[in-house]
Specification:
It is a single chain. The radius of gyration is 23 Å and the shape is globular. The chain has about 375 residues and is of the alpha/beta class. About 45% of the residues lie in helices and about 15% in strands. α1 crosses α6 and α8 runs parallel beside α10 (about 210-220). The protein has 14 helices and nine strands.
């Protein structure tokens, strides 16, 4: 990879910057209607970016939860229900009405959160709950300066360099989808795995974060034993605390380890939930998994449903995935100084090749959703 220094460019003086005092485009040749349309798109995106802060505040301050199922409320009543200052609540409600998240009832000066919106914004147990995405944004925007330096040097921005909001928000965002799909859909799509876990098997959850995926499996299969591994000590501490609260300490253990050196052998199932692409050495991680699998064991790789063809990612989900790859996934992998930094949309063929090189040549797409693809992999 050519850094700015190796390419003979002084950091901070990107090619073409000396031309910034001149018009870069001959405006007489552009289509004014297309300019206006695109400007509207950019302003819309800018408004959504700022509104994301309001969504995060609504989630963290309990405003959506207080409105869910409550019917029409005045700003004063909502402030009373949440213990917040009415003037701020009223301003927040105005932004929610502008974004069409909340409806306003003229003549009564009241506001209402539709039930369909409450499912997405106020119910952490709903498969459609998405508020955690906005928690992550706190940390992502805070590392913009570090990302600018990374663009200039080719270095990475490690997972641990982000603020706690990224770790908590990631767990919060992915948990509802895992709760809805992991046990009833994904595991059942793996040949023979459910039967093994019902009898009593061994499972390694690599890159477990706060451990929600590990604990969902442990709750469903009390006869089995589960081991969660993550290289991030604060996440492991959080996982241990959650497991203790849920009474799962008898069959769940969490330890600090990387994807390339996690301990243990004879695992009937090894899982990677939306994390393999974040490692600097995905091949090393899969080689470790191949050596740790029991005979007939299965590796389940859950990856974002992104495409190596950049044009295929021109969808709302693809846009979110590729932007997250710029902000978090690729920088995290580069920070590990491994042989490969995939980003989160390398595509199935790249993953399949890496797995085969690691000795995992049995590969099958087992399940798919708009957000994820689930692969069943083995020797």
């Amino acid at each position: 990879m050519a850094t700015s220094a190796s390419a003979g460019v002084t950091p901070g003086s990107a090619p073409g910057r000396e031309r910034m005092d001149k018009h870069l485009v001959d405006e007489e040749r552009v289509d004014e209607d297309r300019v206006a349309q695109f400007l509207e798109r950019v302003i819309t995106d800018g408004g959504a970016a700022v509104a994301g802060l309001c969504t995060s505040l609504g989630d963290r301050l309990g405003l959506y939860a207080a409105m869910a199922g409550a019917g029409p409320l005045t700003s004063a009543r909502l402030a009373s229900r949440t213990g917040l200052v009415e003037r701020y609540v009223r301003e927040w409600l105005a932004a929610q009405v502008a974004g069409e998240y909340v409806t306003y009832v003229p003549g009564t000066d009241t506001y209402e959160l539709p039930d369909e919106h409450a499912v997405v914004l106020a119910d952490p147990d709903s498969a459609h709950y998405a508020a955690g995405f906005f928690t992550m944004l706190q940390a992502v925007y805070a590392t913009e300066d570090a990302l600018m330096d990374a663009f200039r040097t080719g270095e990475g921005v490690g997972w641990q360099e982000h603020g706690p909001a990224l770790f908590a928000g990631t767990a919060k965002f992915f948990r509802p989808g895992y709760a809805a799909s992991l046990v009833p859909e994904w595991l059942t799509a793996l040949d023979g795995v459910v039967a093994k876990l019902e009898r009593g098997g061994r499972v390694a959850d690599v890159g477990c974060g706060y451990g929600y995926s590990t604990m969902l499996m442990a709750e469903a299969f009390p006869a089995s034993h589960f081991y969660g591994f993550d290289f991030h000590p604060p996440s492991i501490r959080a996982a241990r605390g959650i497991a203790a609260e849920r009474g799962l300490a008898d069959r769940v253990r969490f330890d600090v380890a990387t994807a390339q050196d996690f301990p243990g052998k004879g695992f009937d199932l090894i899982t990677f939930f939306d994390c393999l692409h974040d490692t600097g050495d995905p091949g090393g991680a899969l080689r470790c998994a191949e050596q740790a699998l029991a005979d007939g064991g299965t590796c389940m790789i859950v990856e974002p449903n992104g495409s190596a063809d950049v044009q295929e990612n021109a969808t709302p989900v693809g846009r979110a995935l590729t932007a997250a790859s710029v902000a978090v996934c690729l920088p995290s992998a580069l920070a590990q100084h491994g042989p490969q930094a995939l980003g989160n949309h390398a595509g199935e063929e790249a993953m399949r090749t890496i797995a085969a090189d690691a000795g995992l040549r049995r590969w099958r797409l087992a399940a798919e959703s708009p957000v994820n693809r689930v692969y069943a992999v083995g020797r």
